[in-house]
Amino acid sequence: MGETRQAVAPSVRDACPLSPNHAGGQLRHFAPIIFGLSIIALWWVVADMGILPTYFLPHPRAVWDTLWSGIADGYLLSAARETLLAAGLGCLAATIIGLPLGYSIARSPIVAATLGPYLAASQAIPAVALAPLLVVWIGYGLVPITVLCTIIVMFPVVISTTLGIRELDQDIVDAARLDGAGRLDLVRSIELPLAAPAILAGIRTGFTLSVTGAVVGEMVMGGDGLGAALSRGQGSTANVAQLFAVIAILIILAVGIYLLLTYVEKITRKGLS
C-alpha cells in the first residue's frame, strides 16, 4: 500500500495544475516578458523623474516615437532586412563550411590536432580588427560583411558539430555498420540526425553572433543596414533616441531568432525521442 502511494503521488503531483512543477513551467514562459516590462517601467520612472539627462537616457516615449517613425516610413524595416540578409548569408555559409569541418575534427585526430589551435586562435581576433582588412581585400558592400559574419559564426558551428558527433552512442553507430550501412549512409541517416540538437544549438548561438557581426561590418564597411543607422545616430549631434530605437530593433531580432531556433531544436529533439 505504501509503495502504491509512493508510485501514485508523483504522477498526481505532476498532473495537478496547481503543483509547483506546473506553476514553474507556466511562469517560465512569462518570465522574460515580465522582466522586460519591469525594465521598461523602471526606465520610464527614471526618465520622468529627470534623474539622468536626456542625452544620456532618453525618455521611452521619445524612443518609441523614433522607432515608430522609422518603421512607418520603412527606413528601419529596410535596414533590418539588409542586416538580416548579411547575417543569414553568413550563417548559411558558416554552416555549409562548418558542418564537414566539425565532422572531420570529430572523426580524425590528425585534422583535430592540425586545425584545432587555429580555430581557437581565430576567436582572439575581434570583428572590428577584421573589418578594415576585409575592406582592403574585398571592398565595400554585402560580400565583405557576409564574409565577416561567416568567420564569426564558424567557430560555434564547428565546435557544436564536433561535440555532437563525438558524444554519439557508439553502440548505435556500430549496429548500423553491422546492418551494412556505408560511410555516406551512416553520416546521412545516423550520425547527423542524432547530432542535430547539438548542431542546432551551435547554429542558434552563431546566428545571434552573426547579427552582431553584420552590424559591426556595416558600421565599418558601409551599407544600408542597422549598423549604418547606428553610425548616423552617432553623428556630431548624437541622436540618442535613434540609437536606442536601433538597439531595440536589434534586441527584437536577436530574441526572435533565438526563440525560433530554440523551437526548431525542441521539435528536432522530440522527433528523435
UniProtKB/TrEMBL annotation:
List residues of the ABC transmembrane type-1 domain. 80-262
Give its localization: Cell membrane
Q: How does it sit in the membrane?
A: Multi-pass membrane protein
* Family the entry assigns: Belongs to the binding-protein-dependent transport system permease family.
Is-annotated flag, keyword GTP-binding? no
Q: What is its main location?
A: membrane
Which stretches are transmembrane?
33-57, 84-106, 118-139, 145-165, 198-220, 240-261
Q: Which UniProt keywords apply?
A: Cell membrane, Membrane, Transmembrane, Transmembrane helix, Transport
Species of origin reads Flaviflexus equikiangi
Q: Which domain of life is it from?
A: Bacteria
Its protein name is: ABC transporter permease
